[in-house]
Write a structure and sequence with these properties.
Distance between the termini: 33 Å
Order of helices and strands: EEHHHEHHHHHHEEH
Structural class: mainly alpha
Radius of gyration: 19 Å
Strand order of the largest sheet: 1-2-3
Strand content: 5-15%
């Protein structure tokens, strides 16, 4: 219902512009593929190198992940040394996620919402992808829980974008009909895995969602995300969003 901005990895180095970077910043909300690409670039490796190391990295992921690190490549700043490897970076990211996610507050928060920690990470990834601002995160999390509790499909554009490996503001009707376990328009419940790598604010929202009865939301324009429990009101908000998008789109020349 909202879109995720595409960030650029921050590679910091000393005064010598040709020197190898000294640290790598992974932004909140990046997908695993973006993290792999950033690692390859930071370490001056051929594209695809980081992803190929997954089978030998022996990452300590939860059993529910089934070897997929999505959600556990924690967004943070990681130092780059002479002997840094893709394996060491991925291991550090998963270790950091383990420290952040496996403490008592997250475990207790997940239990309060009848989830395990892996499901809480999945909700946090949805919040990270969908919330237009940090202030909206708790409300987005509440929408997710309210819809799950009512047996409603989540209908989140971010899950369709993940299935199609893209980022866009506009999801078409045909997009919502794709055959994918990540298509939350067609499938009930949470997606099978997280859809990005969330940060601490998104996790806090996932375990302590803002109280409310909202079932729908849409970001009509930057800074104006509207939450409602009324389908009719939501349709009016969506119409306003579509009108704003049409107005902002370049008009064909005659």
């Amino acid at each position: 219902m909202a879109a995720t901005a595409v960030a650029v990895p921050l590679l910091t180095s000393g005064d010598d512009e040709d020197a190898r970077p000294t640290s790598l910043v992974i932004p909140e909300g990046w997908r695993s593929g973006q993290v792999y690409d950033a690692i390859d670039k930071a370490l001056a490796l051929p594209p695809g190198s980081a992803k190929k190391t997954l089978t030998k990295a022996a990452l300590k992921l939860p059993s529910e992940a089934e070897g997929n690190p999505e959600g556990y490549l924690f967004p943070a700043t990681y130092p780059l040394a002479e002997k840094t490897t893709p394996e060491s970076l991925l291991t550090a990211m998963v270790r950091t996620a383990d420290k952040k996610f496996n403490g008592a507050p997250v475990s207790a928060g997940a239990q309060r919402n009848a989830m395990n920690v892996y499901q809480a990470v999945t909700v946090a990834s949805l919040v990270q992808a969908e919330a237009a601002t940090p202030e909206d995160m708790g409300k987005v999390a509440r929408v997710v829980f309210n819809r799950l509790e009512r047996g409603m499909p989540l209908q989140l554009d971010s899950t369709v974008n993940y299935a199609l490996n893209r980022t866009t503001l506009k999801t078409t009707e045909s997009d919502t009909r794709i055959d994918s376990p990540y298509n939350s328009y067609q499938r009930m419940g949470l997606p099978p895995t997280p859809i990005d790598n969330p940060g601490e604010e998104a996790m806090r929202a996932a375990i302590s969602p803002t109280p409310g009865d909202w079932l729908y939301f849409v970001t009509v324009k930057p800074g104006d995300t509207r939450f409602t429990s009324s389908y009719e009101e939501h349709q009016r908000n969506v119409a306003e969003f579509n009108a704003a998008q049409k107005k902002a789109s370049p008009q064909p020349t005659k």
